[in-house]
Amino acid sequence: MTALHVEGGAPVRHISVLRDEAVDALAPVDGALYIDGTFGAGGYSRALLEMADCRIVGIDRDREAIAGGASLVEASQGRLMLVNGRFGDLKEITANLGVERVDGIVLDVGVSSMQIDDAHRGFSFRFDGPLDMRMGGEGPSAADLVNDLSEKDLAALIRTLGEERRANAIAKAIVSERNNSRIETTLHLAKICETVLGRAFDQINPATRTFQALRIAVNDELGELLRALFAAEEVLAPGGRLAVVSFHSLEDRIVKTFLAERSRTTPNVSRHAPATFAAAPTFIPVVRSATPGDDEIARNPRSRSARLRAAERTDAPARGPSDSLAYGVPHLPALTTIMGGQ
């Protein structure tokens, strides 16, 4: 296939991490249908379109990403369709399009560079902007969580989703500060984290883990990921492939656990109960684990923590959703209550 030329489009500011490896894992072929569940700037979609005469449904909950993909849709000459939605709903999205089975799904989990670099979105402590972090613009914002959660619940959120060891101290400092004035901006929160952890020099910024926790919570990223994995099992045709790129241990643990459990062929053995044989595997591993090479990290430092896992769908019946806790999605009761209206 020849390259797709997009005339007059804005420069692409988001670099799809492990793009070639993820697309190779999907092994695109002519006439197939693929889902790009995190369209972003269209990096994976563009590569798929160039490798095969295939069709793609691109999904993104960010309306700005959908609008920014208009030029690629036009250049694809009818082979690319964009849908504003969540990849956790991809089963419903494909059903609404009259699609029963797809040949491949790629997911790039987390926040995009475009979102991080836009101060008005409130994802980054590097710029001053509203403390928002909502990918889709709906539901409670990060500021709502910071100002409305109790100190205990805020500490639990930062410790669990941010893996921050000083979560209790940060939560205490946040509550003390919000008693004086509501915390509404990114730099306001970042300075609070700095007062607790000290300034960063060559080490990780002191606000990094707190911002990560709030972003994951606001967008229900871990729940969305697991729902997408369950949906992928439902909609992938036998022989279809799933490729997932994750960026931190919480995400990767969910993907790793899901694929390991769905590809298990050995019996479940417990000293507390009789041995039971696992259901027929629904996936076969294709890429157990791949990380960026030195060249990619040099070009795109944000790729350094990325990991790719990929698997091929068997013809065994889908097992359907099960307890999210078993896959590493934490349950935070207070967060469930405050996010109930999302």
UniProtKB/TrEMBL annotation:
InterPro entries: RsmH, SAM-dep_MeTrfase_MraW_recog, SAM-dependent_MTases_sf. Its main location: cytoplasm. GO terms for biological process: methylation. Residues 291-325 are annotated as: Disordered. It is found in: Cytoplasm. GO terms for molecular function: methyltransferase activity. Specifically methylates the N4 position of cytidine in position 1402 (C1402) of 16S rRNA. This is Ribosomal RNA small subunit methyltransferase H. It comes from Flaviflagellibacter deserti.
